Amino acid sequence: QVQLVESGGGSVQAGDSLRLTCAASGPKFSSYAMGWFRQAPGKEREFVSAISRNGSNREYASSVKGRFTIFRDNAKDTVDLQIDSLKPEDTAVYFCAASPGKWPFDLAIAKSDYRYWGQGTQVTVSS
To answer: Assuming Cys at both sites, which of 21, 39, 99, 105 could form a disulfide with 45, CB separation 3.0 to 4.6 Å?
Structure first.
């Protein structure tokens, strides 16, 4: 199974940028579709972005489209989330997740698609 560790969170001002990294350990990272979710205090965990196994397809939540960009490097076993123009409403714990069993071009969008989760990294945006 794959293990996931997120890093790169922090406390920033509105308008700043952050780059979150999810490092995977375990066999066959390229066999997993990957995604990022976030959970704000008192709210449900929500989908942020997803990328296919081969990196050719990406999807974003409407609330982050145009500001967030997802990347993966199958040689380094990492998936990054570049976050620009941060807003206070982006404050949340951000989780990386891995979804097995997808075709190379397919995306995993639903939480139920994901089997493995990291512990999360906190992003706090002040106005």
So the answer is: 39
